[in-house]
Design brief:
alpha/beta, TIM Barrel, 3 domains, Double Stranded RNA Binding Domain, three-stranded antiparallel sheet, 17 helices, eight-stranded parallel β-barrel
Length: 560
């Protein structure tokens, strides 16, 4: 019988998040066709979530990165509540650091004195978004403000009026107004619409001069599909929809911020606020890189330049002091790396068949890693969990060796054992060394000194080999150099030998190319594999046979 859970971990004190009766919902049948308007809040939401907020140098560095990536709307802070944010706004404006196609955004509570100071911080700006908010959920109304519905709606309307009044004092700037019913996800849907209607009545937006209504999942209280229902309800019940840019701002308390933002786009949202790599209060915001790459992987242009994730990650880490998990979606160090043998084999085979200009369909790789500046060197890495496919991929990638399947199997066993002994990853050089040690055994106990091949309809070969017994001269004949040499080996050793399979290929191109040869033989009923590399293709094949013979001789000596 299961023990009762500790009273300190008691699920009975919680209630399910609110759900919405929306029987005719349309968003599940839609697909995202275009990128949303991206609004980065790294310099505000992201910054205020840091244990050590960014200094001026870090803010400027992150600003430059956001502009470079292509963000056209960037929330730079809360200038009425923070002197560093105020100073940063002044620096951007006075130093003319805002590109003509970029709009800065600032956040401010619906309070008169704070709104006045906010506009003072923005004096002289060409274009800016002034974002006001107030909380609207029942717990905020009842427990925090002690106000009824009408009282909280009046805060929103009064804030909108103050924003409009202050904006008229700075007629040379182009102002865009934004309002958020904070805690939207916990607010009654009809009431959220009503509060926003009060704001629209003040601002009177038009299709030519729209305002932004931002629906924040200030706390993620339910599943992403519920948030989508809430957004669709709002989008289909708010008036003057053509005069409103509908925005969402999701948080990650339940781990669904990106999914909620995606579903909100299906539900009618036009714009998404979020941060690079999901930094933000509590568990973070919607990760805009993940969301943008999700779109990209479905054939939608994200309208952001994400081709250099290493620069993004290093700038992010340097500015925030936060690390990036190696399995972080799309940009983590290991997200395109396969250690599993079956995965490695599928990737290797898919890459071999993938044609340039054709739709991407490589197993286990949802996008081409090269699109994000990654090389295939990081795709397959080898440890004790790896199989023959990964081993073969690494040797082909790093050394141009295309191993036959039977050689892949034998080498993979050796690699796995060595990795288990070492207790870690093996790189290409380690695997190559194992390959040479165990299969390119053409030097000991016997080595090829030279050969002469006569081809007059029937091949006759004379081979000089050297070893501990000195130089020996072997003779054989057969159909081809390999058959003739195997005949010579049989006469020399007195043991039955035959070739089960033989493969060779060039390494590189041109006159300097080398030949790699692989032979799978049977010696006195026992299977053995050998390999060799030489500029002379015939010599390579003879050395491969000799390597197999040497390997069997060494194994028998050890057994004795």
């Amino acid at each position: 019988m299961r023990d009762k859970p500790s009273r300190r971990f008691d699920h009975r004190k919680y209630r399910p998040g609110p759900v919405l009766d929306l029987p005719n919902r349309q968003w599940p049948n839609r697909t995202i066709q275009n990128a949303p308007i991206w609004a980065s809040v790294d310099l505000r939401d992201g910054n205020q979530a840091l244990l050590q907020p960014m200094d001026v140098v870090q803010k400027r560095r992150l600003w430059d990165l956001l502009v470079k990536l292509g963000f056209k709307e960037i929330e730079i802070g809360f200038p009425a509540a923070s002197q560093p944010d105020f100073d940063f706004a002044r620096w951007l404006i006075e130093e003319d650091r805002i590109p003509a196609d970029v709009t800065i955004q600032v956040l401010v509570q619906a309070r008169e004195d704070l709104i006045q100071r906010t506009f003072h911080a923005l004096r002289g700006v060409r274009r800016a978004i002034v974002h006001i908010y107030n909380s609207t959920s029942p717990v905020q109304r009842d427990w925090v403000f002690g106000l009824d519905r009408e009282g909280v709606a009046s805060i929103a309307r009064q804030g909108a009026e103050w924003v409009l009044r202050e904006a008229r004092l700075y007629p040379r700037s182009h102002w865009v107004f934004q309002y958020s019913p904070e805690s939207f996800t916990a607010t009654e849907p009809d009431y959220a619409v009503d509060v926003c209607e009060r704001v629209l009545d003040v601002w009177k937006p038009t299709p030519e001069q729209p305002c932004i209504l931002n629906l924040p999942a200030t706390v993620e209280v339910s599943t992403p599909n519920v948030f989508a229902d809430q957004v669709e309800y709002f989008a289909t019940h708010i008036s003057r929809r053509d005069c409103v840019i509908l925005s969402v701002h999701t948080h990650n308390d339940r781990g669904g911020a990106v999914a909620a933002a995606e579903m909100a786009l299906l539900a009618g949202a036009d714009r998404v606020e979020g941060t690079l790599l999901g930094n933000g209060e509590r568990t973070g915001n919607a990760d805009l890189l993940t969301l943008a790459m999700n779109l990209y992987s479905q054939g939608v242009d994200p309208q952001l330049d994400l081709g250099n994730p290493e620069e993004i990650v290093q700038t992010y880490k340097g500015c925030t002091g936060l690390d990036v998990h190696p399995r972080h979606p799309w940009v983590g160090e290991l997200v395109y790396t396969a250690f599993s043998g079956s995965h490695q084999d599928a990737i290797r085979k898919s890459l071999a068949r993938q044609q340039a200009g054709r739709p991407w369909q490589v197993a286990y790789l949802p996008i081409d890693p090269r699109d994000l500046g990654r090389s295939y060197e990081a795709v397959i890495r080898v440890n004790s969990q790896s199989g023959k496919g990964g081993v073969a991929f690494v040797l082909e990638r790093d050394y141009g060796l295309v191993l036959p399947r039977w050689l892949q199997i034998e080498l993979a066993r050796l690699v796995q054992h060595e990795s288990e002994v070492r207790g870690g990853e093996m790189d290409g050089a380690d695997i190559h060394a194992l390959f040479h040690t165990h299969f390119v055994s053409d030097q000991s106990p016997q080595r090829l000194l030279g050969y002469r091949l006569d081809r007059n309809g029937h091949d006759v070969i004379e081979v000089r080999i050297g070893g501990r017994e000195g130089e020996q001269l072997l003779h054989g004949e057969g159909e081809g150099a390999i058959a003739a040499f195997v005949d010579a080996v049989t006469r020399w050793t007195g043991r039955q030998a035959r070739v089960l399979d033989y493969q060779e290929h060039a390494i590189g191109e041109g006159t300097d190319a080398e030949a790699a040869a692989y032979v799978h033989m049977e010696l006195d009923g026992e299977m053995v594999v050998g390999a060799a590399i030489d500029r002379d293709t015939v010599a390579a094949s003879l050395k491969a046979v000799l390597a197999a013979v040497n390997r069997r001789a060494v194994e028998r000596a050890r057994a004795a």
